[in-house]
Amino acid sequence: MDISYILNELGEDREQYFNAVAPPIIQTSNFACNTVAKLRDMLQHEAEVHFYTRGNNPTVTMLEQKIAALEGAEHAIAFGSGIAAVSAAVLSQVKAGDHIVCVKKPYSWTNALMRKFLPRFGVEVTMVDGTNPENYRNAIQPNTRVLYLESPNSFTFELQDIAAVVAIAREHSLITIIDNSFATPLYQHPIAMGVDIVVHSATKYIGGHSDVMGGIICAKREVVNRIFEGEFMTLGAILSPHDAWLLLRGLRTLPVRMERIAATTRQVVAYLEQHPKVEQILFPFIPSHPQYELARKQMRNNTGQFSIVLKTNQIEQVDLFCDSLQHFLMAASWGGHESLIYPVSASYSSGNYKSSLPFNLIRFYIGLEESDYLIKDLEQAFAKI
Ligand SMILES: *Cc1c(COP(=O)(O)O)cnc(C)c1O
Questions:
Q1: Is the CATH number of domain 254-382 3.90.1150.10?
Q2: Is 133 close to ligand 1, i.e. is its CB under 6 Å away?
Q3: Ligand 1 within 6 A of 179 CB?
Q4: Is 354 a residue whose pLDDT tops 70?
Q5: Segment (H or E) for 279
Q6: CATH 3.40.640.10 occupies which residues in the chain?
Q7: Which coenzymes or cofactors are required (predicted)?
Q8: Is 81 in the pocket of ligand 1 (CB under 6 A)?
Q9: How far apart are CA 314 and CA 231, in angstroms?
Q10: pLDDT, tens digit (0-9, with 9 covering 90-100), for 103-140
Q11: Which tens digits make up the pLDDT trace of 5-20?
Q12: Which whole-number Å values give the CA distances from 270 to 158, 245, 287, in the listed order?
């Protein structure tokens, strides 16, 4: 299916709503039936019909159809946040006594789900260095059910060889789940590589304007319908029709935003690569990166995140560099119009090291600004340290 068709036409039945170009926000909690027979039918197919907005809503359905198509998945289901989608996907595949092998250093709340939340319900998790797929194989136990991937992963942007991990999962009849948020549904297609369940934080690139939160799960229809009847309907972490509408609006410009972000990021990285105050750049799309070939093989393009390690052994210098930047906002999240930094030094306080990452690591997100504008800002901040 053409991306242009998906983003501009798929799921949009304009004659149903006055030929409006922008879809309507169907702000209703319930949908009425005029006969008992209709009601009976609705109850039997709740996953497929518009009956109650905690289940399905037409504005949300439109978003689900488009993202499923972008991912090449049979079906999708939207949530009120990325972590709701991650949690529902994982919970749907395990029960007490089961075991998960998860990539180490995943997104922070995925880490909390794996390390703190699931153990309360008798689910064990082993975290592995995902850069070698054999580490997944070696961690498999008789009670393993799920191999969990996040590629690239948070902060260090390490990749997992998706096809290789899928092959291992298939040998052992295990389910694979991947968080594809960093790569977007445009630049990496895990379903085509055999992954069972793909999740996204739609808050990031899909929304794209730092004004909405959402999450999505893409998988086979049968898997999505099982999640609908289980985790989705019981935990109730739904996406509101208005937020679905904002995400639909974000989707319209996803390809142009990503192209621009990819190009600007390469320019900023090229500048940082030659800078004497940068010790290391964590970005798989530079030829010197050990996973460069894999990045080229399984991703269509780079996106806007990378980290740098500043050449300093003083935390004050890191703080000074970050405080000196005038056009990079300091904030959590990413994927919007605005460039951001997130210094690991913020998690360090008076010798109380809370992070497993070095204090001089700074995560960058490149937004939609001009590259010169960002590079000049970096230049003046480097001059201060
Ligand atoms: C932000 C993020 C999430 C969580 O998404 P929310 O929308 O903030 O709940 C999950 N995975 C990754 C990789 C993220 O960056």
A1: yes
A2: no
A3: yes
A4: no
A5: strand 278-282
A6: 3-252
A7: pyridoxal 5'-phosphate
A8: yes
A9: 46
A10: 999 999 999 999 999 999 999 999 999 999 999 999 99
A11: 999 999 999 999 999 9
A12: 19, 37, 11
